[in-house]
Design a protein that fits this description.
two-stranded antiparallel ribbon, 4 helices, alpha/beta, globular, 27% strand
Length: 241
């Protein structure tokens, strides 16, 4: 199995703190750095192709006609970061600190359940087999980036053998800063898991989970979020082929 460490996907940068207010505005940014380019991938991999929609998304209909923000999604050069093997296996880290564990784990598991309405997700006990790892850890320090970040989603590419075929795959690590409390725990998890499920961009509307900035009253998953997710899964990718 060959592994590529890939780009930092999404960062929540804590900044613009207001001196007279206990709330700090959290800025979401995306930073892309050269890593696994098409030239470094095996020549045997096919060109980007479209996977069948999972039934949960195929059956999704937006009765409100809310639109989407697909135009803000910027996939890597090998195609959209979508999953083709279901259920997607999700590992939720259990903190060592028992006083913090129950609330944090319950909040994150509820977020997994919320997104699981739209994509088949399965919580697993082993981080080794997980497609997505959700970790209660401060995001790794990055050069030129503010230190205080609420969360970060990162991915890595690898190839695996499926019969006699080489298949391009990926896995995600989602870091949730332990400094987050209350409603901002699920808000950050909801946003970062949205990235890990394939929404590689940010909404410009604060009523969407993938809004580029954290808000005082975090919204639930919106119709626009799901519409965008569905459009992502209708796009070609080299992942899973």
């Amino acid at each position: 199995m060959r592994l590529w460490k890939v780009t930092v996907k999404s960062r929540l940068l804590a900044g613009l703190g207001l001196a007279l207010c206990c709330f700090s505005l959290i800025i979401f940014t995306q930073v892309n750095t050269p890593a696994a380019s098409l030239s470094s991938l095996p020549n045997s991999l096919p060109h980007p192709q479209v996977h069948p929609l999972p039934p949960t998304l195929a059956n999704w209909q937006d009765s409100t006609d809310s639109g989407d923000y697909f135009d803000q999604v910027k996939p890597p050069n090998f195609g959209h970061l979508l999953w083709s093997k279901f259920p997607i296996q999700v590992y939720v880290e259990r903190p060592v600190d028992a006083n913090k564990s129950e609330e944090w784990v319950a909040a994150v598991l509820e977020v997994v359940r919320e997104w699981g309405v739209y994509l088949p997700l399965e919580v697993v006990d082993s981080s080794e087999v997980a497609d997505i790892r959700i970790l209660r850890r401060a995001p790794p320090l990055r050069q030129g980036v503010l230190r205080s970040r609420s969360g970060e989603a990162t991915y890595e590419l690898y190839t695996r053998l499926d019969g006699n075929k080489t298949v391009l795959s990926h896995r995600f690590s989602v870091y949730l800063n332990p400094t987050q409390v209350g409603k901002y725990i699920p808000a950050t998890a909801r946003h970062e898991l949205g990235h890990a499920l394939g929404i590689w961009g940010h909404s410009l509307m604060e009523t969407d989970v993938l809004y580029f900035s954290q808000v005082r009253n975090p919204p639930p998953i919106s119709a626009r979020d799901v519409n965008t997710l569905k459009r992502v899964y209708e796009q070609p990718t080299r992942l899973g082929w």
